């Protein structure tokens, strides 16, 4: 069995496309923090100088309006004529802007400031509507937000890059699809499957060996992705990790530090990698075609992103939008906003309901692989 697992793992990692893609992704993910380091060296002299400049703007009295005035003042200056502080305003604070006096949160498809949430709750209580979903959703949001400090600009070092949900998602997506979409279908396309699955013993051993090899490969992809993203912090610093999460994600309702969110995200990412790997392997076995498996896998990843653009209030579409493997692969995204699912009239936070459903799907797909492989004939 061990030799079979080694053989299947070798088949995956020895593919030329895997080798080439791995090199390209590694170079790209190393280039990003290196470019940032060089840019900081050129424009600020060092990362320490950048931190000193940023410290001046860690001031709740410095608002978006103040930033707009400063940006207007330097709008027509050439990049080479900007001072270090002006370059900071134009290239960092313009993106990671100071928080406006009233932050608006999306709750039950409506936008509320914290004061408006409190006011709406009192209004619903006065009307006796305390058993409605809207009241429960607002009350849950109010309970979470009341525990938070007022978000303001803080220098967060490299945490935006370390927790890049897009890089996490796309990197794992590419490597998993390229590595696993052929794991079963390749044998069918080469007419090897009838021989490999010709006996009861082989129908039991080969699928298990492939699944284990696929999961080992997935674990390698996971570790490599996490390490390469951590290079941002290793090269440019981990400052800001102990600050409240709403300094990094200004609309986040979660009462935790950045590091706590990151560690939870790593667990969710690992779960997502495992589930997505099993789904790809299941598709490879069922379709018996590598290209169809690849296309369906990309579609599974992409549909939730398309639903974000639609932004429908339909509960079924909302469920598909939030409860999917894409959100696990882009796990930091789960903590950026207040997102709930209407679960039989009760608002449940998306990360809480996503995990058990994902585990059930993973177990279900594994059983399908096992059952389908046993039904194969010569």
TrEMBL record:
Transmembrane segments: 12-31, 159-180, 211-235, 261-285, 292-310, 348-369
Keywords of the record: Membrane, Transmembrane, Transmembrane helix
Claim: Metal-binding is one of the keywords in the record: no
Protein name, entry field: Putative membrane protein
Species whose genome carries this gene: Clostridium bornimense
């Amino acid at each position: 069995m061990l030799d079979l697992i080694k053989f299947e793992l070798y088949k995956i990692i020895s593919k030329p496309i895997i080798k080439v893609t791995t090199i390209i992704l590694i170079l790209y993910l190393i280039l990003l923090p290196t470019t940032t380091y060089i840019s900081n060296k050129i424009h600020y002299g060092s990362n320490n100088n950048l931190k000193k400049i940023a410290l001046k703007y860690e001031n709740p009295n410095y608002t978006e309006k103040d930033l707009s005035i400063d940006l207007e003042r330097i709008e027509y200056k050439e990049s080479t004529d900007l001072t270090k502080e002006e370059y900071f305003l134009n290239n960092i604070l313009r993106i990671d802007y100071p928080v406006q006096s009233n932050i608006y949160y999306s709750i039950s498809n409506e936008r509320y400031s914290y004061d408006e949430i409190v006011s709406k709750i009192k209004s619903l209580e006065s009307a006796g509507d305390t058993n409605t979903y809207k009241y429960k959703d607002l009350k849950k949001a109010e309970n979470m937000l009341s525990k938070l400090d007022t978000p303001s600009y803080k220098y967060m070092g490299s945490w935006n890059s370390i927790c890049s949900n897009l890089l996490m998602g796309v990197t794992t997506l590419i490597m998993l699809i390229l590595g696993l979409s052929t794991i079963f279908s390749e044998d069918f396309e080469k007419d090897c499957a009838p021989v490999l699955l010709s006996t009861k013993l082989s129908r039991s051993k080969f699928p298990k060996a492939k699944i284990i090899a696929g999961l080992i490969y997935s674990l390698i992809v996971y570790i490599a992705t996490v390490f390469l993203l951590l290079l941002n912090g290793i090269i440019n610093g981990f400052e800001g990790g102990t600050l409240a999460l709403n300094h990094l994600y200004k609309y986040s309702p979660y009462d935790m530090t950045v590091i706590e969110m990151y560690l939870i995200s790593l667990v969710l990412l690992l779960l997502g990698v495992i589930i997505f790997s099993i789904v790809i392997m299941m598709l490879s076995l069922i379709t018996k075609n590598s290209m169809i498996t690849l296309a369906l896998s990309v579609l599974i990843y992409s549909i939730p992103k398309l639903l974000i653009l639609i932004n429908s209030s339909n509960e079924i579409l909302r469920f598909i939008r939030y409860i999917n493997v894409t959100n696990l692969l882009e796990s930091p995204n789960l903590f950026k906003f207040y997102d709930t699912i209407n679960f039989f009239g009760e608002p449940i936070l998306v990360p809480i309901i996503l995990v058990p459903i994902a585990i059930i799907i993973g177990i279900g797909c594994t059983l399908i692989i096992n059952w389908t492989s046993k039904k194969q004939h010569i």
